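Quick log. Single chain, no ligands specified.
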Amino acid sequence: SVTSIGHYAFRDCSSLTSISIPNSVTIIENGAFAFCSSLNSVSIPNSVTIIENVAFAYCTSLTSFTCFISSPLSIDSDVFFQFNQSNCTLNVPSASLTAYQTAPVWQNFNPIIALPIPTFTQVAPICSGSTLADLPTTSTNNITGTWLPAINNTATTTYTFTPTAGQNAGPATMEIVVNPLPTVDAGAATVTFCANAITPIT
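-> predicted structure:
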């Protein structure tokens, strides 16, 4: 999988109008999208940790820049050289809105908007080995996407929902608690069992 967008990889690509960088990418190198004069929409995943100088220089048509990175990266002002940030909307995770509004370089975007967060009905705790259905791929506020990791009905797991590209929505998480099956004393007066589960008795 791609882990970096190389030096001047898309320089002068006048036919490029929109780019959604995959979640495997960690570095956007020097001048990667410089002089992409028709580029109007960019989406940066949370996996990116470095954006090098003049990465988006002279991208004069940009009107929407979506950044899923939870904490604003420290970047040089020339990342957006000769591009008027005040004419471009910056979409960021809702929990990070204030951070971006005060972060050097990032604060120059206007407006800065919090991404909508997908909402889901919390799955109730289950007992280990009980049936656990796949999580819904459409949120209650109509955002579509995918969940990772795969469903695990034997251990408590936190799942991350990543919206389908192009929806300008933030990620969501859900922890599903999986309780271990109790081992009980057959002589106990009162025993609490897991519903629909087989509990060993000693």
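The radius of gyration is 23 Å.
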